[in-house]
Amino acid sequence: MTLAIETEQLTRTFGEVLAVDQVNLSVERGAFYGFLGPNGAGKSTTIKMLTGLLAPTSGKMTILEKNPLNAAESLEIKRRVGVVPEGLALFDNLTAREHLTFVGRMYLLPPDTLQERIESLLGLMRLDDEEKKLTLEYSHGMKKKLALAAALLPNPDLLFLDEPFEGVDAVASRELREMLARFVARGSTVFLTSHVLDIVQKLCTHVGIIAGGKLVRQASLDEIRHGGSLEDCFIELVGSDTQSAQTLDWLEEGG
Prior knowledge:
The chain is an alpha/beta fold. The protein folds into two domains: 3-80 and 157-252, P-loop containing nucleotide triphosphate hydrolases (Rossmann fold); 95-155. It is 38% helix and 24% strand. The chain contains ten helices and ten strands. It has helices at 43-50, 71-79, 96-106, 111-124, 140-152, 170-185, 197-203, 221-226, 230-238, 243-246, and strands spanning 3-14, 17-23, 26-28, 32-36, 58-63, 81-84, 158-162, 189-193, 206-211, 214-220. The chain has a six-stranded mixed sheet, with helices on both faces. Strand 9 and strand 10 (214-220) form a beta hairpin. The longest helix has 16 residues, at 170-185.
């Protein structure tokens, strides 16, 4: 079994706050891995460490069989990885074409290859009719699609997606799901965080669940479904607080 991502006792603290607590991830190559957890569980912090945006406090990481904490190997990893970060990281005063051109040049793509891929991605994301708009004029959904186009541009072996479907309309969401399914079918790997369990069930082959900074479950989706639904497993492991419902009994009372 070849792993695209492997961590050992991966930990990150912020002062006295333990955000990620000794997480051991194993993500096979060719997997569509869903990384789930409630708000504040440590999902985005974990992705930031895996993508080199944040140094771990302790622990080890291996990405595409290379060490991201080694400067030379880290550069090679970056050439083979695409990322849609939490904040999207777009340039507001560029058009979509200008943004993708800049990204492609950073990856040292040959000019002909770059232009061919830009045309394909703009058409696929339905951004080719918005040529004159600056990114700051885009809707949130359009920005998400541009960020995904930039992540796919270098034809990566591994794709990190932090809440990629948030704010995306139903039509675009379906198109993106189909595209990502094809991406994985060719043998590439996707590491996805999402709060939408329905999307995870439709797309993912494997799931990791984090709560309170700890990885509380990691298995194939088939294994989890064998014991019930993904939602039941998630609620059982993460826990549900009924206090909020109890304090809103007045909503059920007549005026």
